[in-house]
Structure to design on (765 residues):
């Protein structure tokens, strides 16, 4: 390896074992090239070698996997299809708080490198009927329990995970766009052309949990940021929102939080008359809305300038 | 046809002939259009579907509507060679092969154009590796390929005696052509046993193809009807598509038989009477189709439910109204009115209205696919000041590929017309009880069946 003082005689190749075990453990599939030998004083970790011995290895001598890119992607794909064990993700969007600040969308676009021709997250101007009050409706993917997109996919490229998230494998998608037609919420967007170049994404191994790097001719959409959830963080939209509109949480724990406030999910829905959008289409969304009552800021005083150019109002 | 006296005369009339200048120009034109489409497809492969006008809202465009058109027109094979045949309508015998040629050429291009629509045509094998039987697309792949296979058999098997006839009778043809007939006729000798197998298998296929034919268009309609979208969310869609398909298919046969009759001077075979009957058939099919059209639009328009309302307004009185009413008036109403009169069912007027029906049917498919996508449940407000109106008008790339696919199917038809007898010689001989031909015993045998 790097230095002469490390002998090479007992070079442990934990590669395949680690890859399998690690993928199953749902953690990041690093593969280790470690050495036995004199420790250089730093932190050590205990590992199981392929012949069943416990070995202590210097943390510094752990190297990133020697897996090929394809093997790494494969491990990531297995992880992405399985989901985060024991979880059932849910979002609650408080319409009363939304002031159309669009920080959510900006953060989403930035962190997912979303090009200008599409949005994973939209904030719609809604008015259910002529006489009813208008309101802003942020809309993510609803990660439906009966997802029509998944039902129509001919190749199982889009799938429903144990933790409720609907994801896409952009390396399997054939680009038929049936899922886009099937989604009643116009959530899905398409890589019509060659993806934009981003220096940061160079050499990055494709991971369906991030949908990056983008793949030409395939479908993408809001993914609830599984990479953030894995780290115990909130998705980018919730982190960025200055008004605490977005609550995320785990149905199994019956808890949702927007970062500063935490509620019992069931209690919140009960107290605030939470509902799901277009219940009548039977898709069973995992995104709940709290009605836009007692708004902190009246609708017409909110930042509407961005929409002045587009006069469209949706009559629900 | 009563002037036909011998199999020789029949062969003389119906054997493939070299194209004249017009035929060559026509073929060249088609080849050029196809080449132009291939160039456009190259650009699409290179740059992705961004060369089309499709967008995240209007995510299906004329490739898909053109696909539906191809599937529709190909249905005629089963109408003529199965339904009419099994119902013993002898008058349609000269049309069987024309209908099968239309079926094969168009279902082929249905398959091709759907590949053109794919964002990742390079991953087409995923359909077989990861195919989910639950997806209507997989049903469509299965049923379209089955239909293609049966249609090819229904075209090919009844060709065997004719190919043998060409092999034996056509002397002044290039060697490769002779060789082709020899290979394709599979050593047909015209024995009684062979005819028995031929009749048996053709009858069997004619029965099998009816449910498959209904299947291709019903399943194609389900690609739309299985979604939660206004205008597509319809239980009427299967039969509506099937009815519309018979209309355009019958019109396609009329159009082609008129051209064949004019070009090859086949008045003896493609008689005024056949045109008259096809005209009547087309009227009946159009009326059935109209019945389904009324079903499709009247009840939603009566209720004006959310999700249908804006679409129906758009079709009836909005931006799509000229096309919608144009299709109803020029593609259905006027043709039916013309064909109600005996004079309107003469070859020339019938040819004209049949072409109106075909063009109308193409635009009808456009109206089925695109307007619905203009009216999603959630609005098209794009943020950040980007103009947000949903719009779609096919780009030059889309037009040139689409036109090339239509030209391609016509090219296949043209080539088949050039090298195959497009009217089944042995079936005519059988039906006419022609005098046996001393040098061609096969017809003698067939006569005795």
């Amino acid at each position: 390896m790097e230095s002469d003082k490390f002998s090479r005689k007992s070079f442990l190749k934990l590669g395949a074992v680690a890859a399998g075990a690690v993928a199953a453990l749902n953690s990041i599939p690093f593969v280790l090239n470690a050495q036995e030998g004199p420790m250089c004083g730093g932190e050590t970790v205990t590992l199981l070698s392929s012949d069943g011995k416990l070995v202590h290895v210097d943390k510094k001598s752990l190297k990133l996997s020697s897996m090929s890119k394809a093997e790494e992607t494969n491990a990531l794909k297995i992880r992405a299809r399985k989901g985060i064990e024991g979880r059932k993700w849910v979002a609650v969007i408080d319409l009363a708080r939304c002031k159309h600040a669009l920080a959510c969308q900006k953060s989403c676009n930035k962190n997912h490198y979303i090009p200008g021709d599409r949005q994973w997250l939209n904030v719609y101007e809604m008015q259910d009927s002529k006489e009813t009050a208008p309101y802003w409706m942020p809309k993510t993917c609803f990660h439906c329990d009966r997802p029509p997109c998944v039902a129509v996919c001919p190749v199982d490229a889009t799938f429903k995970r144990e933790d409720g998230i609907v994801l896409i494998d952009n390396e399997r998608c054939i680009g038929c766009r049936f899922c886009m037609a099937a989604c009643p919420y116009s959530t899905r967007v398409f890589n019509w052309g060659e993806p934009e170049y981003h220096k940061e994404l160079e050499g990055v191994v494709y991971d369906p949990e991030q949908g990056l790097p983008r793949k030409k001719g395939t479908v993408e959409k809001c993914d609830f940021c599984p990479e953030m959830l894995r780290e115990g963080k909130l998705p980018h939209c919730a982190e960025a929102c200055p008004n605490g509109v977005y609550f995320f949480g785990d149905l199994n724990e019956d808890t949702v939080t927007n970062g500063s406030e935490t509620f019992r999910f069931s209690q919140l829905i009960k107290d605030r008359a939470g509902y799901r959008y277009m219940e009548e289409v039977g898709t069973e969304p995992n995104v709940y809305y709290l009605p836009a009552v007692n708004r902190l800021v009246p609708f017409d005083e909110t930042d509407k300038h961005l929409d002045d150019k587009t006069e469209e109002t949706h009559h629900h | 046809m009563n002037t036909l006296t011998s199999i020789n005369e029949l062969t003389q009339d119906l054997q493939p002939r070299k194209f004249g200048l017009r035929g060559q120009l026509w073929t060249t034109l088609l080849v050029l259009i196809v080449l132009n489409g291939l160039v456009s497809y190259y650009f699409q492969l290179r740059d992705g579907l961004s060369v089309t006008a499709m967008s995240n809202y209007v995510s299906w465009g004329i490739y898909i509507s053109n696909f539906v058109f191809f599937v529709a027109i190909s249905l005629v094979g089963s109408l003529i060679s199965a339904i009419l045949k099994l119902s013993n309508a002898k008058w349609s015998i000269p049309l069987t092969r024309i209908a099968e040629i239309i079926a094969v050429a168009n279902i082929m291009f249905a398959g091709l154009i759907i590949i053109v629509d794919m964002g990742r045509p390079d991953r087409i094998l995923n359909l077989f590796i990861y195919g989910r039987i639950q997806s209507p697309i997989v049903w469509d792949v299965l049923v379209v390929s089955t239909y293609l296979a049966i249609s090819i058999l229904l075209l090919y098997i009844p060709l065997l005696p004719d190919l043998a006839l060409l092999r034996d009778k056509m002397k002044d043809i290039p060697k490769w052509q002779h060789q082709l007939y020899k290979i394709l006729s599979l050593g047909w000798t015209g024995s009684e046993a062979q005819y028995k197998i031929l009749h048996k298998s053709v009858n069997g296929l004619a029965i099998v193809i009816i449910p498959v034919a209904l299947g291709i268009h019903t399943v194609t309609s389900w690609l739309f009807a299985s979604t939660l979208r206004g205008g597509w969310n319809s239980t009427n869609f299967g039969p509506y598509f099937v009815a519309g398909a018979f209309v355009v298919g019958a019109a396609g046969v009329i159009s082609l038989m008129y051209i064949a009759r004019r070009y090859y001077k086949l008045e003896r075979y493609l008689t005024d009477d056949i045109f008259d009957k096809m005209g009547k058939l087309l009227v009946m099919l159009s009326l059935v189709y109209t019945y389904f059209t009324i079903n499709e639009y009247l009840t939603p328009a009566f209720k004006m439910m959310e999700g249908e309302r804006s679409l129906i307004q758009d079709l009836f009185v909005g931006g799509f109204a000229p096309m919608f009413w144009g299709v109803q008036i020029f593609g259905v109403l006027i043709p039916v009115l013309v064909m109600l009169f005996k004079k309107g069912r003469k070859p020339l007027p019938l040819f004209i209205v049949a072409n109106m029906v075909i063009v109308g049917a193409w635009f009808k498919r456009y109206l089925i696919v695109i307007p619905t996508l203009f009216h999603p449940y959630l609005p098209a407000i794009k943020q950040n000041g980007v103009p947000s109106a949903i719009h779609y008008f096919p780009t030059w790339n889309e037009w040139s590929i689409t036109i090339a696919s239509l030209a391609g199917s016509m090219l296949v038809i043209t080539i088949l017309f050039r090298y195959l007898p497009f009217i089944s010689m042995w079936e005519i001989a059988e039906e006419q009880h022609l005098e046996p031909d001393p040098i061609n015993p096969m017809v003698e045998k067939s006569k005795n069946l």
Notes: Chain A has a mean pLDDT of 82.
